[in-house]
UniProtKB/TrEMBL annotation:
It comes from Ruegeria spongiae. This is Aspartate/tyrosine/aromatic aminotransferase. Gene3D superfamilies: Aspartate Aminotransferase, domain 1 (3.90.1150.10), Type I PLP-dependent aspartate aminotransferase-like (Major domain) (3.40.640.10). InterPro entries: Aminotransferase_I/II_large, Asp_trans, PyrdxlP-dep_Trfase, PyrdxlP-dep_Trfase_major, PyrdxlP-dep_Trfase_small. GO terms for molecular function: transaminase activity. Homodimer. Belongs to the class-I pyridoxal-phosphate-dependent aminotransferase family. Its cofactor is pyridoxal 5'-phosphate.
């Protein structure tokens, strides 16, 4: 049977990671995969995570199965972190998932189960895994305009125009903060307009929030998600702890299904648990337990928030430094958007040939659509990147 298998398209981001590893040059700069790196190029285990892991190791008496939804304390802690009371707890069904990817996958399956004719509207561009999983599940996808190639901001008029084409029951997938891959985000007034459109047209909101705390702050980054959750009749929220807790490989995520009608919650909850059972039965526990431990302990939580804030501010500092350097070298303000973007990524809007040139001639690795991971920079490499960007003629 294996002879019938066909090669599947590789993940371009992961392929780039491999190319970078194989490049023998010393001066190379990795701005590819979305993993936070400090000034030394290291992705550290966060202090609070280490401490919580020690605590779990010392206190855990059993590794018997949890439940299909994972540990309820994890769901409670995460619902609190993301929604902070924006929606009554009784309206929220939630399950732990293997990372934010697992949450997206389960959300898409839930949509297909509940409404097979629903289409999913995705931003153009969006995280490639959204597209790949939707294709794999055979769910119809409709791109909506999002990135304005001129301003490198959000093409809001285009977005609204495209979303107006959605039919009742269609799902609108939105990035809660720190849009991947562009770094361009809506302001809260624009979010309110999108919420109004969703309600007027009978659409379902789905939020993917993978970078809470990486943009404007923990609370600020959750504001749009809270606004949506508290203003629509039904929504899905896929969340990831990979980045903000730095627990990438532990596979720690959460899927919420929220209904304005609390009598729906029990059915939503059992359906989410059913989907977990069909796919992998019990979700991973270690990362979830570490996150629960941190969020439930005043001192650990404060230390985590402080370190997360250090991470956020370091990326903001790099953004500003790069924007300033580019302004100096190019003598123009056209790179100002880099300081306006939020999160790990900025799409600089370079043609694929220029992205290739940056890699071949300068050892600078960014994703083919010209997405760069700001955290791959440090104070020494910012001027090198700026020089190269101006030299290749972006
Ligand atoms: N959604 C978006 C937009 C992402 O960028 C990511 C990647 O970090 C994820 C979801 C899920 O990541 P993970 O499955 O590693 O938690
Ligand atoms: O966009 C990124 O770089 C991150 C990490 O298949 C990632 O979200 C990349 C590819 C992938 C899974 C995660």
């Amino acid at each position: 049977m294996f002879e019938h298998l066909k090669p599947q398209p590789a993940d371009k981001i992961l392929a780039l990671m491999q190319m970078y590893r194989e490049d023998p040059r010393d001066q190379k700069i990795d701005l590819g995969v979305g993993v936070y790196k400090n000034a030394e190029g290291i992705t550290p285990v966060m202090r609070a995570v280490k401490a919580a892991e020690r605590q779990v190791w010392e206190e855990q008496q059993s590794k018997a199965y949890t439940g299909l939804a994972g540990d309820p304390a994890y769901s409670d802690a995460m619902i609190n972190l993301i929604l902070n009371g924006a929606v009554p707890r009784e309206n929220v069904a939630a399950v732990a998932t293997p990372g934010g990817t697992g949450a997206c996958r389960q959300a898409f399956e839930l949509v297909r189960m509940a409404n097979p004719s629903a289409r999913i509207f995705v931003s153009n561009p969006t995280w490639p895994n959204h597209i790949s999983i939707l294709n794999y599940l055979g769910i119809e996808m409709v791109p909506y305009r999002y990135f304005d190639a001129e301003t490198r901001g959000v093409d809001f008029d285009g977005m609204i125009e495209d979303l107006k084409q959605a039919r009742p029951g269609d799902v609108v997938l939105l990035h809660g903060c720190c849009h991947n891959p562009t770094g361009a985000n809506m302001n809260l007034i624009q979010w309110q307009d999108v919420v109004n459109l969703i309600n007027e047209q009978g659409l379902i909101a789905m939020i993917d929030i993978a970078y809470q705390g990486f943009g404007d702050g923990l609370e600020e980054d959750a504001a749009a998600t809270r606004l949506v959750a508290s203003s629509v009749s039904e929504c899905l929220i896929a969340a990831s702890c990979s980045k903000n807790f730095g627990v990438y490989r532990e596979r720690t995520g959460l899927l919420m299904a929220i209904s304005a009608d609390a009598s729906q919650t029990a059915l939503n909850q059992s359906t989410l648990a059913f989907l977990n059972r069909q796919n992998y039965s019990f979700p991973p526990d270690h990362g979830a337990r570490v996150v629960t431990t941190i969020l439930g302990d005043v001192a650990l939580r404060a230390d985590w928030q402080q370190e997360l804030e250090e991470v956020r501010l370091s990326m903001l500092g790099l953004r500003q430094q790069l924007a300033d350097e580019l302004q100096r070298l190019s003598g123009s303000d056209r790179f100002g958007f880099i300081a306006q973007h939020r999160g790990m990524f900025s799409r600089i809007g370079a043609a694929p040939e220029l992205v290739e040139k940056l890699r071949v001639e300068h050892g600078i690795y960014m994703v083919g659509d010209s997405r760069m991971n700001i955290a791959g920079l440090n104070a020494q490499t910012v001027p090198i990147l700026a020089q190269a960007i101006v030299e290749v003629g972006v």
